Amino acid sequence: MKIFDSIVDIRSFIKAAKVEGLSIGFVPTMGALHEGHLALVRESKGNTDITVVSIFVNPTQFGPNEDYEKYQRNLEQDSQLCDVEGVDVVFAPAVTEMYPAKDSVVVKESALSKNLCGRTRPGHFSGVLTVVAKLFNIIDPDMAFFGQKDAQQVRIIEQMIRDLNFDIELKVVPTVREYDGLALSSRNSYLTAEQRVWAPRIYEGMQKVLSLYKAGEKDVSILRQALEAVLTGNDVEVDYIEFVDWKSFESVDTVNDGTLLAVAVRVGDTRLIDNIMFPSLSFS
Ligand code: PAF
Questions:
Q1: 153-159 — which CB contacts under 8 Å span 24+ positions?
Q2: In angstroms, what is the span from residue 144 Cα to ligand 1's centroid?
Q3: Is it the case that residue 280 has pLDDT exceeding 80?
Q4: What pLDDT sits at residue 282?
């Protein structure tokens, strides 16, 4: 496995691979790798010849009071995990390599990012889109792999690929969960033992909503109440519970097979997100 920290070096590696006719799969990450990331890697390995994983904690997608400083960084451990999974290339640039100066050109999305995390984390999606566009231009992948857990991110990146004519196939991989339903996230490691016991309630609550829906309940206000009743606890604050149309990310009053339920909850200082798709809907 090769590890690059220089844009020039990874570009020449990719160019040589392309001359040989090899396809490139790209898994963008911020490190602190877990089984959710490894599921993306396995998908990439199954679909492309060369798998590139980027490990970069992107400062521009964190707000001033967010966890940029405390975000886990352990390149050695992450590289070992990648090596074991058969990753071909890790790209782990320094902040100065990606942002030698403050960018004066950035990518902004103006419709899909108005709600949910776009509303409660101003500037977040512009930071994500800008770094993903930079990484796409550096790595020039044929396919890029993202997790369904970050549903809004996936939808906005899908739109960027379309609107800016990136010649990249987006592949969305289902959320990987702990045995008790908690969605895997690097941020789960911030939870105290007590908070960790509480956290699966997010998935339990969403499952309750899903079973009410399957039993015929489609009214969002009733379904929301059912979820709110589960998402209570010590030091727990619901950031949002949103029922949106998967394509437009506009709120809906009635759930149907094109609806996404997305939830963000603060448990102590830790912000957890999760989502479920209503039946017969697929991301692609
Ligand atoms: O999902 C993430 O880990 C990040 O938002 C991403 C896509 C790697 C961009 O920094």
A1: 153/117, 153/125, 153/128, 154/283, 155/112, 155/246, 155/247, 155/249, 156/109, 156/112, 156/113, 156/125, 156/128, 156/129, 157/128, 157/129, 157/132, 159/109, 159/112
A2: 12
A3: no
A4: 44
The listed CATH number (3.30.2270.10, 2.40.50.140, 3.40.50.620, 2.102.10.10) that belongs to domain 2-173: 3.40.50.620
Domain ranges of the chain: 2-173, 186-277
Write out pLDDT tens, residues 160-189. Answer: 999 999 999 999 999 999 999 999 999 999
Q: Respond yes or no: is residue 37 known to be catalytic.
A: yes
Pick from 30, 78, 109, 170 the residue to mutate for probing ligand 1's pocket: most ligand atoms within 8 Å of its CB: 30
* Res 97: pLDDT: 98
Residue pLDDT, tens place only, 93-121: 999 999 999 999 999 999 999 999 999 99
Q: What per-residue confidence (pLDDT) applies to 279?
A: 79
What 3-state DSSP class applies to 2? strand
Query: In this predicted structure, what is the pLDDT of residue 128?
Result: 98
- Distance of CA 253 to CAs 117, 220, 261, Å? 20, 5, 12
Tell me the pTM.
0.96
Fold of 186-277: Pantoate--beta-alanine Ligase; Chain: A,domain 2 (3.30.1300)
Residues touching ligand 1 (Cβ under 6 Å) are: 28-30, 58, 61, 128, 131-132, 150, 153
